[in-house]
Amino acid sequence: KKRNPGEKEFLQATREIFDSLRPVFLKHPKFIHNGILERITEPDRVITFRVSWEDDTGKVQVNRGFRVQFNNSMGPYKGGIRFHPTVNSSIMKFLAFEQTFKNALTGQPIGGGKGGSDFDPKGKSEREIMRFTQSFITELSKYIGADMDVPAGDIGVGKREIGYMFGQYNRLKGGYEAGVFTGKDPNHGGSLGRKEATGYGCVYFVEEMLKETGDSFAGKNVIVSGSGNVATYAMEKAIELGAKVLACSDSNGYILDPNGIDVGTVIQLKELDNKRIQEYTKFHKQATYHEGCTGIWSVPCDIALPCATQNELEEIDASLLIKNGVKAVGEGANMPCTEKAILAFQANGVLFGPAKAANAGGVAVSAMEMSQNSMRLSWTVEEVDDKLKIIMKNIYTSCHDAATSFGYPGNLVVGANIAGFIKVADAMVSHGIH
Ligand code: NDP
User: Fold this and answer.
1) Is 290 helix (H, G, I), strand (E, B) or coil?
2) Which residue from 77, 7, 9 is spatially nearest to 47, judged by alpha carbons?
3) Which of 6, 182, 285, 333 has the fewest other C-beta atoms within 10 Å?
4) Is 286 annotated as a binding residue?
5) Which CATH number fits domain 193-434: 3.60.15.10, 3.30.870.10, 3.40.630.40, 3.40.50.720?
6) Cβ–Cβ contacts within 10 Å for residue 17, how many?
7) Which residues line ligand 1 (CB under 6 A)?
8) CATH number of the domain at 43-190, out of 3.40.250.10, 3.30.1340.30, 3.40.50.10860, 2.40.50.140?
9) Domain ranges of the chain
10) CA-based angle 127:131:132, to the nearest 5?
11) Which of 100, 107, 161 is nearest to 130 (CA)?
């Protein structure tokens, strides 16, 4: 707290890990002797910079850019870039910290990082977004590279913005460094299956949790918050596995469709037309729109997948879900459930898949994009999806086994924290004290 005053989200994320680690330190005193706890919570470096750009009226605008290079013991720093007005140092540090353990859990050779800006893409023209993005990457280009730090997309950053970053980076460097970004357009160096990977991966993870109790997605009612990249493809896969998705949302409100959400309409509205989710009701008369996004948690369901943003599901929402009989919750977004909400789920026997395990599918496929770029070839969407399924199953098994062997059977929060931590901590010990 003293070292990171006011950094609410970062302190929340570190607290969650610390709470899980007591049995690890008892079993592995070498982590104490090597000062791992003190070192692992301090980022390797935090880069903050000014991003000046000119809007369409010719006015100069100034935003703040960030890149947190948290830990590269496992491989080059890897993590998304977020463009959203709420971006600040605490949010960047919490995301980069979580990313370090998530990336380790994937079993791929990638370290942890995160970046972004308080730039708000909403209401900006395409040219303004391009000018901003070029200015952002002009500064960040000094600190990244295929073997150094490999950014990707996140909230507000999709393949269009990654394309602008990639173009500007190569222009500045005077070459073509295919592996410096992931999340590229599959027609220009990206991996097939990347845009679906986080949402699909989250559903694969929850399916593993359900399997343990002899259950599955088939015939279940599901609600998914958000209607962006993660939410859309989580809905698509849940439906493919036989579930009905009753509701989804955006930052204004949620829609409820008793016939089951039509994902094609959501993709058309949100991914292609940049419209609000409210417009869904124009195409599906039986559906209703409700103002305010947290109301979505009052919809009775068997499975809830929070896929929008951090701390979007609080204790009061968890109580409603529990009262309405929720069986499983899988975090598609990063840290969408507050600490008290998680405790409520666990105390009431709800299966709970924490973000750093359940949403690791996206970064796992990003690492596959790096491999394909290095080999100068591309895998088919089926090859990528098959590998993704195996990775999500392996992540589930590591979390499950770590929880059991450290005395917390069934607690995947503790399991994910311990399994991810041990991999990173072991690498840090082997690299010596620095
Ligand atoms: P997008 O920008 O594509 O989508 C975010 C969605 O959430 C939008 O529909 C947005 O609505 C909605 N939203 C924002 N705030 C709220 C809120 N308070 N309540 C309800 N809906 C809200 O982002 P992504 O789908 O890429 O990312 C979502 C989350 O998943 C983030 O936490 C991200 O860090 C995490 N994540 C993403 C990965 C990826 O591969 N994309 C990988 C791993 C984690 P609106 O349209 O109104 O803005």
Assistant:
1) strand
2) 77
3) 285
4) no
5) 3.40.50.720
6) 22
7) 153-156, 198, 225-231, 249-252, 293, 307-309, 312, 332-334, 359, 362
8) 3.40.50.10860
9) 43-190, 193-434
10) 115
11) 161
Degrees to nearest 5, angle at CA 366 with 87 and 40: 60
Which residues form the catalytic set? 114
Going from the C-alpha of 17 to that of each of 41, 262, 352, 394, the distances in angstroms are: 10, 38, 16, 21
What does the alpha-carbon distance between residue 19 and residue 339 come to, in Å, rounded to a whole number? 11
Backbone dihedral angles phi then psi of residue 296, each to the nearest 5 degrees: -60, -30
Q: Is 170 annotated as a binding residue?
A: no
Residue 5 has pLDDT above 90, yes or no: no
Encoding tokens for residue 246? 């009753």
pLDDT at 404 over 90: yes
ipTM score for this prediction: 0.99
Task: List the beta bridge partners of residue 330.
Answer: 353
Which pTM does this prediction carry?
0.95
Pick from 230, 233, 311 the residue to mutate for probing ligand 1's pocket: most ligand atoms within 8 Å of its CB: 230
Q: What is the pLDDT of residues 41-98, one digit of tens each?
A: 999 999 999 999 999 999 999 999 999 999 999 999 999 999 999 999 999 999 999 9
Same fold, 43-190 and 193-434: yes
Q: How far are the Cα atoms of 117, 134, 145, 385, 416 from residue 171, in angstroms, in the given order?
A: 22, 10, 14, 33, 40
Q: Which atom of ligand 1 is nearest to the CA of 230?
A: 25
